[in-house]
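--- STAGE predict ---
source: upstream dedup step, 1 unique chain passed
mode: sequence only
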Amino acid sequence: MTENENIATVRDLMAEFAGLTGLDPPHDRPRRYLWTDAYAVCNYLELFRRTGDAVYRDLALRLVGQVHHTLGRHRDDDSRTGWISGLPDEEGEAHPTRGGLRIGKPLPERRPDEPFDERLEWERDGQYYHYLTKWMHALSRVSRVTGDPAYTRWAVELAKAAHAAFTYALSSGGKRMYWKMSIDLSRPLVPSMGLHDPLDGFVTYSELQAAGGRTDLSTEIADMANICRGRSLATDDPLGIGGLLFDFGRIAQLAGRVGSISDVLLPFVLGAAQSGLARFARGGTLRYPADYRLAFRELGLSIGLRGVGPFAARVQENPDLSRRADALMRYLPLADEIERFWMDPENREAGTWTQNREINTVMLATSLAPAEFLAV
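--- STAGE serialize ---
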């Protein structure tokens, strides 16, 4: 497709998303989901940048407001009310992210006296660290586009709250992280650590630190650097590989603004992404029919791949990094293949698409016009 055709498609996809979730026209009880909404904010900012139409900027800001007033407050079926931070209403309005943000899952969180059920846990509410970092990034982009520092302030307050709750000290020294916390951040719901959560936190905190102002996340950045040290990042999950490529792009952009961050991390991130891509490509899952594929996971990979070309140019002066980045370039056709497949209306009739329609719709739009999401 041409650039104009891409943007027209993105406009249609984001209009569909707005209608499905109660964003536009506005609904009294909008259906908000933090991961999807973080991508959607960036998509609306991208449409604003590309078209100059202030309607899209306003949709991004309205979406931020809906997320904070929905996922920053207790569920309708919860005996607790108000802001999940516990702040009184007026103070909560000024600091909507200070208690974190709910995931937006359909089922209530597991009670302390309920047994763990892995299948049910995927549908239960709570807080995910990697969703919170996506929202921090979205808020940072809103500040960049609008010039309003309040959004960066909210992102930093979210970073502080998330870091304090999700990290914990080991008796042997050092720290680790929980994967999922309760809505009020008082207890872990899944105690294991996400494979890329420490890296994502390190890069996202560095992004916020580079935004300037009175931001100071140096302690949190140091914690994440220590947790990252010596950890394997390798995965053959397409969404995970896409996340590595997203982090690679942000690190490459931040290299001149945050010390020697690129020298420390880029070789590890690029190496993990390269090995993961090789394994994924050999697996042949892109030859499966739509009923056996998850669009949002594949689209996570295509979004990451869309950033490889522009950001590979930033490491050309380093021979080793340049060689690694160039090796990734041969996988760029995978992004075209994934987009073509999910642009086919017949494939979007499959249950794997319709059951995850909102997240699939938004991430397809991001893949087609990813610049705002990939920027720092």
